[in-house]
């Protein structure tokens, strides 16, 4: 018998059957509106909504393999700046005052539901110590997001972020990763000193084409907001890439059964058929 399933139907069925095996994501990992930036002075995208094509594809359940995908996030920066603490606060909601150096690399997987679609971030924690740098750098490849971290209470660590970013970018295709600059330990700084450091950091972020955030792993300030922003930007990028791939393409599946992916899936009233996927 010849199957009439489109690829979209097939992927949706597969996702639905997997859903029964996986518990629902926690409420604070559900993102329905585009999360806001930290400061408009160093922000990757100004917008309040997901791209019209992404919204439309999510509503029509035409999300390809995105719901099954894991996006890679790499966290880099000097030793002791608080990379592990930042990840632990977000993923486990814990904070440890004692310092334990990361040896090589470690990772966490965080599940989200964005615009109704399951989505995963694989967050790589890398060692800041020089002696582990060559192990850690082997894991930079394929990063959809690069987070460069510095300590707001130690200005030297900000100066080193450009080198960390350069090393991470060397392992990735130009323009393929979102870049964030994150100042940690916000609870330790205040007043004029904090404002001065933030101004310097914003200047660095602009030079690095990065979005800037200040956070505290100790108090949790801005940590969820920051990772929600990371997840939303990475998700939207994945969706747009997926839609670009599938637009009007004919896919050969199995023993030659030809399955057509809906050719006008990229057309929405807002987009017209000429819409540029890269334009948000
Ligand atoms: N007050 C305060 N201390 C923090 C914060 N984040 C981290 N720390 C402390 O800073 C020290 C270093 O934190 P880590 O998260 O281990 O630093 P790291 O960047 O992962 O260090 P490496 O693994 O060596 O690269 C620890 O003692 C943490 O408790 C924060 O937001 N506020």
How would the blueprint of this fold be written?
Blueprint: H1 7-19, E1 30-31, H2 52-59, E2 70-77, H3 83-92, E3 105-114, E4 117-126, H4 133-137, E5 145-151, H5 155-159, H6 161-170, E6 178-184, H7 191-208, E7 211-214, H8 223-246, E8 250-253, E9 257-260
Parallel strand pairs: 1-3, 2-4, 2-5, 5-6, 6-7
Antiparallel strand pairs: 3-4, 8-9
Bound molecules: guanosine-5'-triphosphate.
Family: Belongs to the small GTPase superfamily. Rab family.
Subcellular location: Golgi apparatus membrane
Enzyme class: hydrolase
Kindly list the characteristics that best describe this protein:
single chain; 280 residues; alpha/beta; seven-stranded mixed sheet; two-stranded antiparallel ribbon; 8 helices; 9 strands; globular; disordered C terminus; binds guanosine-5'-triphosphate
């Amino acid at each position: 018998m010849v199957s009439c399933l489109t690829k979209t139907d097939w992927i949706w069925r597969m996702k639905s059957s997997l859903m029964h095996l996986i518990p629902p994501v926690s409420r604070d990992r559900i993102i329905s509106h585009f999360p806001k930036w930290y400061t408009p002075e160093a922000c990757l995208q100004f917008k309040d909504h997901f791209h019209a094509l992404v919204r439309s594809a999510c509503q029509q359940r035409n999300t390809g393999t995105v719901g099954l995908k894991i996006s890679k996030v790499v966290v880099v920066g000097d030793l002791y700046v608080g990379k592990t603490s930042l990840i632990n606060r977000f993923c486990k909601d814990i904070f440890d005052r004692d310092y334990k150096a990361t040896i090589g690399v470690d990772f966490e997987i965080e599940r989200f539901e964005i615009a109704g679609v399951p989505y995963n971030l694989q967050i790589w924690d890398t060692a800041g110590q020089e002696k582990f740098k060559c192990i850690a750098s082997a894991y930079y490849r394929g990063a959809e997001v690069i987070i460069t971290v510095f300590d707001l209470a130690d200005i030297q660590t900000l100066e080193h972020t450009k080198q960390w970013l350069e090393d991470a970018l060397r392992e990735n295709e130009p323009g393929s990763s979102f870049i964030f600059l994150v100042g940690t330990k916000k609870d330790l700084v205040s007043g004029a000193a904090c404002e001065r450091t933030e101004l310097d950091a914003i200047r660095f972020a602009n030079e690095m084409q990065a979005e800037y955030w200040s956070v505290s792993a100790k108090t949790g300030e801005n940590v969820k907001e920051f990772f929600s922003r990371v997840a939303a930007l990475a998700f939207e990028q994945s969706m747009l890439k997926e839609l670009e791939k599938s637009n009007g393409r004919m896919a050969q599946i199995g023993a030659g059964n030809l399955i057509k992916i809906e050719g006008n899936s990229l057309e929405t009233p807002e987009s017209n058929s000429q819409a540029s996927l890269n334009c948000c």
